[in-house]
Structure formats: C-alpha cells, structure tokens
Amino acid sequence: MIMAGRESSYFLMSNGNVMSCGRNDEGQLGDGTREDSAEPVRVKLPNDVEVRMIGSGPSSQSVFLVGEDDAVYAAGANDRHQLGLKIDDPCVPVPQLIEGMDAVPFLDKVDKVCSSGTHTLAITCQIITETPTSVPTFEPSESP
Prior knowledge:
The protein has 144 residues and is mainly beta. It has strands spanning 2-4, 8-12, 18-22, 37-42, 51-55, 62-67, 72-77, 91-97, 113-114, 122-123. The protein has one domain.
C-alpha cells in the first residue's frame, strides 16, 4: 500500500513496517524527527507494531496507521487536534495510539482511514441492517 500526503509519501511493506519520505515539518514522517528526508525512513511505532493499513490525504500533514489488532496510531500536525489524540502537542513526530476507538459501538473493524489538512480521523464501517440486501435510510440529522 502506498499513500501520499502533502509533500510526504508512505509505503506499507509486506512485513508490516512502514517507510516514509518527503516533507516532515510537522513530524508527519513518524520517524521521531521534524527533518525532511529525501530517502525513505522507518516509521517508529510503539512495540514494533505491525501495520495493515495507512492513511493520509492530499492536503494532510498527518498519517494514520492501523495495526493488525485494529489499534489506530497517528503522527504529524495536531494544531487543531485533528489527530484525535488526548494530547495538546501541535505536532506529533512519533506515532501515538488513538485511545477510545474501541468505545465506538458500531465499529467492528477499521476499513479505511483518511485525513485532510484540518480534519480528524475518518473511519468507514459496515452498517448492519435487519435485511442485509437493503440500503439503510436515515435523516441527515440522525446518526446511522
């Protein structure tokens, strides 16, 4: 899997490691520094967590990493709390665990992660209905 953020690139390797390169002014490469890198550097995840999915976006200075156990980690720009972390640091150069993801009642498995310049973590999940072939409908003001 390959993802690109705002002037940063991320590569998910077959062994679950993530490499990154490019711009790193907000710590978005996740290597523990804020120094740009012309060559791929290894993203430093706690306890050498194996990653199964990465997410970033075209205007993002952040990266999200989903571990094999569905734990979600984030690094990069956090000046508007867009990483969803319980910390006030404006930049996070080492990926941190996003706590509370297991408290979302309808979330069974993380299907996709994405980010933008000022948005927090975006998650897609399957909506289960009584009749699996039907498409659920709801008012925009209601939560699915």
